[in-house]
TrEMBL record, chains A, B:
Organism annotation: Actinoplanes xinjiangensis
Keywords: DNA-binding, Transcription, Transcription regulation
Pfam families: TetR_C_14 (PF17754), TetR_N (PF00440)
Name of the protein: TetR family transcriptional regulator
Lineage: Bacteria, Bacillati, Actinomycetota, Actinomycetes, Micromonosporales
Residue ranges for the DNA-binding region feature of this UniProt entry: 33-52
Domain of life assignment: Bacteria
Keyword Transcription among UniProt keywords: yes
Length: 207, 207
DNA sequence: TGCCTGATTGACACTCAGTGCCAGATCGGC
DNA sequence: GCCGATCTGGCACTGAGTGTCAATCAGGCA
């Protein structure tokens, strides 16, 4: 039952996020203390930590949630599709709305320029990797318990890294170029279209 | 002149590293405070921070130094070589000696299991990327100021990611397989040998 | 309506990382 | 032996994050 308790909790969660993001974007991430956030949101310092483990999680909280969406998108891909194509297709489903493009650009820049945020963002991406690897292993026909088989890990990590690179270039370019295009360019630089599908389960007729 | 001042400094630096690493590996990274390290090394708490910016830097201090070695190795690669091959070759020159394999395994595991260490390790790798990208851009013939060209960034980030994946697999496998082999396997999974050299400056005779 | 249980909250105290400041010691050159 | 530069230790401070405890409040039950 998600009655008053959890509804209140969600409301407070959203309120903290809104308040904190506004402070971050105006006076900067490091210059905003948790006392500032708590005071502005009308809660106690201690309560803040009951909603967010760290200050960084306020900014990157949605990231881990979208990791699960990507996993679902990956599993929904056609069964015969090779792992690389499926992975790229699934990553295309990352649409962090909830913010307009200009705000998104500010947030990206902030994450990019703040070491602790940058690091935590990458940690989240590592969690994505753990989420996606099993399905890729399955598609590659790899033994799930074989620690020597690095193919799936390499593929997943690479594609996510391409997304990172694209995001970085997107901020550098001031959001002038669609993120998708940059992602595609990064992916194509790593594995040109001329490449035949990497490791495939088999039985596939070429084409 | 690197006379007494810097010689003493280097000696103290090494002493702190040795002492701290011993504490880390016995009682754990998080369970070791900087006061512990300072006391064991016979210096003041304040002086510790004159040698290391953070506690993590004691463990990962050599990493940033090897970044420069990789850059040199990359620049020393044959001029005609395609960027991908040159990058992989340069990465092979990462040999963190100074520790035996068993100690190395413990350190890897510690870094892997400690979030703050993991994060900082990734930050260092980002610094590697910034170091290596210019040379790769040069090899690709990219405009140094063009923020839209993501090829070099994608290539560098991918190869470094492969090294990460290999390192992770190496710890999972208990160091049973040479790190180089795992790295090669990861690289080959991303871009099979059947691929033709990605983006090349040109004029190269095939071979 | 009144009570009980469980989850939430705020307040206080605490540890620890990291920084700024200042006085004293120490080395190198003169 | 003196002087400037550098290193050192000690002190105080901010800020993140945690443990604890009493007070509060929703919901179920008689």
């Amino acid at each position: 039952m998600s009655s008053l308790w959890s509804r209140t909790r969600n409301a407070v969660y959203g309120e903290i996020t809104r308040t904190a993001m506004e402070l971050f974007l105006t006076r900067g991430f490091d210059a905003t203390t948790i006392d500032d956030i708590a005071a502005a949101a009308g809660i106690s310092r201690r309560s803040f930590f009951r909603y967010f483990g760290t200050k960084e999680d306020v900014v990157l909280g949605d990231l881990i949630a979208s990791g699960d969406l990507i996993r679902q998108a990956l599993e929904a891909r056609p069964a015969g599709e090779d792992a690389w194509t499926a992975l790229c297709g699934a990553l295309h489903s990352v649409k962090d709305s909830a913010y307009d493009d200009e705000t998104m650009l500010k947030i990206f820049r902030m994450v990019h320029e703040t070491p602790s945020l940058r690091a935590r963002s990458i940690e989240k991406h590592l969690q994505w990797q753990a989420l996606l690897t099993p399905e890729v292993r399955r598609r590659l026909g790899a033994d799930p318990a074989d620690p020597w088989d690095v193919r799936a890990d390499a593929l997943v990590a690479t594609v996510i890294t391409c997304l990172d690179v694209a995001g970085e270039a997107w901020t550098r370019a001031g959001g002038q170029v669609p993120l998708e295009d940059l992602f595609d360019a990064a992916v194509d630089a790593v594995r040109p279209a001329s490449c035949e599908p990497a490791a495939e389960i088999s039985t596939g007729d070429p084409g």
